[in-house]
Design brief:
With 264 residues, this protein is of the alpha+beta class. It is built from 9 helices and 10 strands. It folds into 2 domains: 16-139, Jelly Rolls; 152-252, Arc Repressor Mutant, subunit A. Helix 2 (112-121) packs antiparallel against helix 3, helix 4 (152-162) packs across helix 5 (171-178) and helix 7 packs antiparallel against helix 8.
């Protein structure tokens, strides 16, 4: 998300907060900021705990303290909130499908009150996945539930992905390791983990970027470590998925929340 060149007060740095990555979702908590017109892959939920923000769409605009923006919808943001919760969710999974439908209908207008209440309750929640799921259940109470236990083929696929964060593991390779067909692995993985195999692999690479930056790498080093050809390649992918430039990571504290266990 590219920040507009507008003046800010000395004590306010836009997009300065905490970023927590979970499989298929990101939770940002902190100071908000403006953005130019953009669209990204993720479904976006925004909640301000102090003052309203303004979202501009091609055919509409919304001044609110909470909103749901479906995947791929171009929008522009004006935000001066100092207490912003922003959730970005993979659209092709149990979490994202229902959220996307709510965003397409009304941009989440009917959920403004309940989202603000739940966001306040979970403002200091340490487990980001729990906070994200609480917000999503408010919008999609009948959302799909993932199995508690992972099957052996899925655990094998997770090991295949986690062992090669700087490469691009193939579905065929993971299926061969798991001794099942690629189509069967695709079905099991999406049902049990919540997002497709290839998308999960991309989330691991983006997680690696965030972790490498948190450890002190510059963006070029982090990009190469995560298997991107260069920082420009990383920038395109990062903006497409999160609506933010990866340089925003330099102003954030990055946390890694619980991820599926491939050994249990």
């Amino acid at each position: 998300m590219t920040t507009l060149s507008t003046a800010t007060t000395p004590d306010r740095s836009p997009w300065n907060g905490t970023l927590t990555l979970t499989p298929g979702a990101v939770l940002y908590r902190g100071v908000g900021g403006d953005s130019n017109l953009h669209a990204h892959h993720a479904v976006q939920v925004m909640i301000s705990l102090d003052e309203p923000f303004v979202l501009e769409f091609a055919d509409d605009h919304l001044c609110a303290t909470a909103a749901v923006i479906p995947s791929g919808l171009p929008h522009r943001l004006q935000c001066t909130s100092r207490r912003l919760l922003l959730v970005l969710v993979e659209p092709f999974g149990p979490r994202g499908r229902g959220l996307g439908l709510a965003g397409e209908r009304t941009r989440g207008r009917e959920f403004e009150g309940v989202l603000a209440r739940i966001a306040t309750e979970h403002a200091d929640e340490q487990n980001a996945a729990s906070a994200i799921d609480s917000l999503i259940r408010a919008v999609t109470p009948g959302g799909l539930q993932r199995p508690t236990l992972l099957s052996e083929p899925v655990r094998s696929a997770l090991r295949h992905l986690e062992q090669k964060p700087g490469s691009q593991p193939t579905l065929a390779g993971a299926a061969a390791d798991a001794h099942i067909s690629p189509s069967r692995l695709t079905h099991l993985f999406t049902r049990e983990v919540g997002i497709p195999f290839r998308r999960y692999g991309l989330w691991i690479r983006l997680r690696t970027v965030a972790e490498r930056v948190a450890f002190g790498d510059n963006l070029t080093q982090a990009a190469v470590s995560a298997g991107f050809s260069d920082s420009s390649h990383l920038s395109r992918v990062f903006k497409n998925n999160f609506g933010l430039s990866p340089s925003a990571l330099l102003r954030m504290t990055v946390h890694r929340d619980e991820w599926p266990d491939s050994t249990s």
